[in-house]
Inverse folding.
């Protein structure tokens, strides 16, 4: 009887999959998929980018500092970070990123952040996971957490790129996602307008955790869209570590090319 029920379930599942495939093929025929960045028609959905955009979004420089994500030359000694981060102290244990905030990547990141940028943010997150799958799997995460924004900002900007990106990364990696465990407890000024030491000062103590239970002893992937000075990620990681996180790695779409 159980076997019969199982085989019926499999039949339903196969039928559902076939129907979904037929529906998506019909939709693609009527509305052919277009590139998330340049609107050019594309043949297969994949990440959602055309070949030309994809080649510009994939990192041109292959080597990067595992501690801060900065692009580095082939003979750089990375034992204690690179020239950009060696003197900095970070509470996070490393950075995984797709590219450098420049050219087409800068344009894509800005559009992903803007209102209506949800699909593009998800496409960039899928591309990041695909490009760095081995690194994500080697690290092995228990929980994916976005760097939160203060609740008052939600009224002005309902779309929040870090949240969308983190959710897609969690889905792609099949890791638990929690957007409420880390909280922005205090509003901080816009980052771009402040010099680095001031940014650090402003960010420290601006995060809190809702509960320590889901964080204690866990390896956490902390997600944002862009890493500029690392001050925000540092303050957020510090809060997670204080709550008992064993390991915090930051994942972003792009890192700023120069962080001084
Ligand atoms: Zn394109
Ligand atoms: Zn570095």
């Amino acid at each position: 009887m159980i076997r019969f029920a199982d085989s019926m379930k499999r039949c339903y599942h196969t039928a559902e999959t076939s129907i979904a495939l037929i529906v998506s093929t019909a939709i693609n025929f009527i509305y052919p998929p277009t590139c998330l960045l340049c609107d050019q028609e594309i043949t297969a959905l994949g990440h959602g980018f055309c070949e030309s955009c994809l080649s510009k979004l994939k990192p041109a420089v292959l080597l990067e500092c595992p501690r801060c994500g900065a692009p580095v030359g082939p003979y750089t000694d990375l034992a204690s970070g690179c020239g950009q981060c060696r003197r900095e102290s970070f509470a996070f244990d490393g950075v995984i990123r797709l590219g450098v905030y420049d050219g087409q990547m800068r344009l894509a990141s800005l559009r992903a952040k803007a209102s209506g940028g949800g699909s593009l943010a998800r496409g960039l997150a899928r591309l990041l996971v695909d490009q760095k799958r081995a690194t994500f799997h080697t690290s092995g995460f228990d929980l994916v957490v976005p760097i939160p924004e203060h609740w008052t900002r939600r009224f002005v900007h309902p779309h929040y790129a870090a949240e969308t990106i983190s959710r897609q990364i969690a889905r792609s990696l099949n890791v638990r996602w929690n957007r409420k465990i880390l909280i922005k407890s205090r509003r901080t000024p816009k980052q771009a307008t402040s010099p680095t030491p001031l940014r650090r000062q402003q960010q420290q103590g601006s995060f809190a955790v809702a509960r320590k239970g889901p964080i204690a002893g866990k390896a956490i992937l902390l997600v944002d869209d862009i890493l500029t000075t690392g001050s925000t990620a540092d303050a957020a990681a510090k809060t997670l570590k204080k709550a008992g996180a064993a390991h915090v790695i930051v994942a972003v779409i792009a890192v700023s090319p120069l962080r001084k």
